[in-house]
Amino acid sequence: MRFISVVEYDSSWRGAYREEEALVKKILQKELIRSVHIGSTSVPGLKAKPIIDMLLVVQSIERLDTFSKDFSDAGYAVMGEHGIRGRRFFYKGNQERTHHIHAYKYTNIGEIERHVAFRDFLCEHKKIAEQYGELKHQLAMQYPFDSEQYCNEKDSLVKKIEDEALKWYWTVR
After folding, report:
1. Helix axes of 126-142 and 109-124: crossing angle, nearest 10 degrees
2. From the CA atom positions of the chain, what is the Rg in Å?
3. Do residues 81 and 130 lie in contact, with contact meaning Cβ atoms separated by under 8 Å?
4. How many CB atoms lie within 10 A of CB 44?
5. How many CA atoms lie less than 13 Å away from 61 in the CB half-sphere?
6. 51 by DSSP, 3-state: which?
7. Which residues contact 21 (CB under 8 A, 6 or more apart)?
8. Cross-strand pairs, 59
9. How confident is the model at residue 2 (pLDDT cuts 50, 70, 90)?
């Protein structure tokens, strides 16, 4: 059972992302098309669980699977699709997670853009980001050891923000 902690934004998260990105680039080399910092730690000012979320856009999910030992050697748990078809999920740290990797083949545009739109929308809409951060903080205090309940309770707001973010994303592009 992991402890859920939502903390104030920490500007060092950007550097932690860049550090891990360098490691991932070294592992994947030409298999990696792009790496993107996503999730709450990528939104300046947003309260977040201090876990760096990375989105990897890769040439081939099947070839990505051949790097499982390399990721494991780098400290990652290799989780396969982990509930989302076409994704590969990895995490670092067991009780105290430090990094999540969400990897998709470059053709999985819907999932890739969903993550990027959510991040960009929160960066541009500070009041909504603040509301989201406050909810996460309250839920972490209410359910400090129940990640399922924590996620369930924030799900409706996440879906609402996601919907608005995708509409917004397509109007500003």
Report:
1. 100
2. 16
3. no
4. 13
5. 15
6. coil
7. 35, 37, 54
8. none
9. confident
**Single-letter amino acid code for the residue at 131:** Q
Residue pLDDT, tens place only, 73-127:
999 999 999 999 999 999 999 878 999 999 999 999 999 999 999 999 999 999 9
Give the model confidence (pLDDT) of 134-149 as tens digits.
999 999 999 999 999 9
Tokens of residue 85, six digits: 């078809």
Q: Where are the beta strands (DSSP E) in the chain?
A: 32-38, 52-58, 76-78, 87-92, 99-105
User: Taking all residues of the chain, what is their mean pLDDT, rounded to a whole number?
Assistant: 96
Distance between CA atoms of residues 56 and 33, nearest Å: 8
Total count of residues recorded for the chain: 173
Other Cβ atoms within 10 Å of 146 Cβ, number? 15
Token representation of residue 144? 């400090």
Q: DSSP character for 48?
A: B
